[in-house]
Amino acid sequence: YLNEIKDSVVGGFQWATKEGILCGENMRGVKFNIMDVTLHADAIHRGGGQIIPTARRVFYAAYLSATPALQEPMFLVEIQCPETVVGGVYQTISTRRGEVHSEEPISGTPMFCVKAYLPVSESFGFTAALRSETSGQAFPQCVFDHWAAVQGNPLEAGTKAQEILLKI
């Protein structure tokens, strides 16, 4: 019987992972192991109309019973600024959940290049805040870099992940 429903289970998997249960977005980095299947003896009850939605609900339940996590897009931000305002750059980045990962002097100039990761959701108004903090002496460039897991369980009250989930 298993070969009869294979395509339907794959369809349920694709549906579940394309419209994830937390935000309705694609799921990333998930794996499901099907250990056992109990099927109705009558073939009329093993059609795609019964198996696909059931498989989707099973994948959703398995996902929720595991440790679900949200992922958010991250910018790589390169900021060129004089050494005197590097502290203001760090301050602006840290208040927006960003993380500095390198700071290097630009050879032959009094400027520094600070590279950081910044959540895309925190980037709105970032340039204005940075220029305000550094008196207009810092020049940022943002480009998408990767997806990162949001700290905390989105199903637990009071976590940043749940706060983001509730805004969606």
UniProtKB/TrEMBL annotation:
PANTHER family: EUKARYOTIC TRANSLATION ELONGATION FACTOR 2, TRANSLATION ELONGATION FACTOR-RELATED. Its main location: plastid. It comes from Ditylum brightwellii. This is Elongation factor EFG domain-containing protein. The lineage of its organism: Eukaryota, Sar, Stramenopiles, Ochrophyta, Bacillariophyta. It comes from the Eukaryota. One of its GO terms (molecular function) is translation elongation factor activity. The keyword Ubl conjugation does not apply. It is found in: Plastid, Chloroplast. Residues 69-158 form the Elongation factor EFG domain. InterPro entries: EFG_III/V, EFG_V-like, Ribosomal_Su5_D2-typ_SF, Ribsml_uS5_D2-typ_fold_subgr, Transl_elong_EFG/EF2_IV. The keyword Protein biosynthesis applies. One of its GO terms (cellular component) is chloroplast. Keywords: Cytoplasm, Elongation factor, GTP-binding, Nucleotide-binding, Protein biosynthesis.
